[in-house]
Amino acid sequence: MSVTIISLREALQSLPENAQEPVVNDFFASHLLRALGFQSEEIYPEYNTGDGAVDKAARKTIDDDAFLHTKSNPYLLLELKGRDINLSEDAAQYQTTVKQIKRYLLAPNCKTVQWGIITNSCHIQLFRKHGKVIHPATKCLPIDANNIDSVIASIRQKIENPAKALTIAVYNNKGGVGKTTTTVNLAAILTFLGKKVLAIDFDPNQQDLTSSLGLPLSKGSVFEALTERDVELQSTLHPYKIPLKKLSSELRFDVIPADQKLIDEPENRLRNLLKLHTLYRKLELSRQEYDYILIDAPPNWRVFSQLAVYAADVILIPTKHNNLFSLENAAMAMKKFIPEVQSQKADGSPIPLPIFFNGEKMTPPQLAVAQQEISNIIKTAKKEGFDLLSYFYPKYSNAKKDLHIHEVPSYANIAGAAFSRIPAVYRDRSAHEYYKDLAQEYFLQ
Ligand SMILES: Nc1ncnc2c1ncn2[C@@H]1O[C@H](COP(=O)(O)OP(=O)(O)OP(=O)(O)O)[C@@H](O)[C@H]1O
Ligand SMILES: [Mg+2]
């Protein structure tokens, strides 16, 4: 029997207008995976994720370890739908499909997976997984015979050259909620846990991150790196080092300090010099070098926050349960600021991570009040067409009405650490545990 190998484009064109899932599976999926660079022995159908079967899993052959035979260490998951399932971004079926691929990506047998794709052969979307975090790597793109080759080529380019780093902007419009403290201690704990970390002080007005680590301010070099085409941001790095007596070694993470020159310039001149994409583009090399890039943003929606949010894959939003403004500002970021930036970026990022409560003691009646406020915020947002539920209550489902919100407790040794210029997690066992919990809750698999 002779097998005619047809192109992906021809495969797409051959699909009937109302192709259901089995047809998409039989006549489109393997062409798609081949166009993404996978051979037939690199693809396994109906792969058991440990939490349901995904339509296809794939991984390149390493030496003589062919994925089809060993089924070990999958790299990419593909969830297929028929054309009867509407995958345009505003459709309910799209939301359900996104939830499904996220569930598979986080399933026990998929720890090594870095990419997830959903498609019904009319739309396609790529998701990236970094540790525990899943974020879009493309928008949900319409595909047809005219654009399929270029769309798939751009997806292939991403999956063959994954950025090493997850870039996190720590942002809330409300001041004093713990953005800087979170950035410093997360950088410190992730370093302790063996990750390579870059922390950026992008709040030049306050310079708190730089001074809490006792590092010198930059006097124009960050400004220069951001505004001159041929100056690398790396040239402005300052290592923060802390000796580990027991191991006679040291921990080290890198810091881009606050730059005095960035506040000496008038805002309208800065706006001309710094484009929304400036920090993002300047971080290109760093994305290949670090595991985590953390950006401390100022408490406003002006030039530095905007560039920080644009540079990020995800936004971490500290709040206080007893500060309504911090909760309302979180909602404002989710409804307005982050979508505004998303619409300027090609890849559908950044997305908000669920909020957490930082640095306040909380009694059960206070928690009840906070939940009432949050419920009002979610209801109002719903009327405006936004579904914020999962950003406040990530564990909530119809089956299990779980209102868990992660909490970093109020703790004097966290507040006091800035005076010693050493992150609290390196000085204090409890602080160490609090931030390890935060890292595990949000980032680590
Ligand atoms: N978990 C905590 N326990 C005790 N104190 C905390 C905690 N988190 C933050 N703080 C203290 O709260 C104050 C505000 O924190 P931080 O400077 O990190 O907030 P911020 O959001 O960066 O503020 P700004 O908006 O001014 O940049 C600091 O004095 C800090 O030490
Ligand atoms: Mg701050």
Overview of the molecule:
With 445 residues, this protein is α/β, with parallel strands linked by helices. The chain folds into 2 domains: 8-160, tt1808, chain A; 166-442, 3-Layer(aba) Sandwich (Rossmann fold), CATH 3.40.50.300. Helix content is 41%, strand content 18%. It has helices at residues 8-14, 21-35, 67-70, 92-105, 148-160, 179-192, 208-212, 221-227, 261-264, 267-273, 278-282, 284-289, 303-311, 324-344, 364-383, 389-392, 412-420, 424-427, 429-442, and strands spanning 43-48, 53-58, 76-80, 115-119, 123-130, 133-136, 141-142, 166-170, 197-201, 238-244, 249-256, 292-296, 314-316, 318-319, 351-352, 356-358, 406-408. Strands 1, 2, 3, 4, 5, 6 and 7 form a 7-stranded mixed sheet that branches. It has a 7-stranded mixed sheet with strand order 10-11-9-12-8-13-15, sandwiched between helices. β4 (115-119) and β5 (123-130) form a beta hairpin. The structure holds adenosine-5'-triphosphate (ATP) and magnesium ion. Adenosine-5'-triphosphate is lined by residues 175-181, 203, 206, 208, 299, 358-359, 408, 410-411, 414-415, 418.
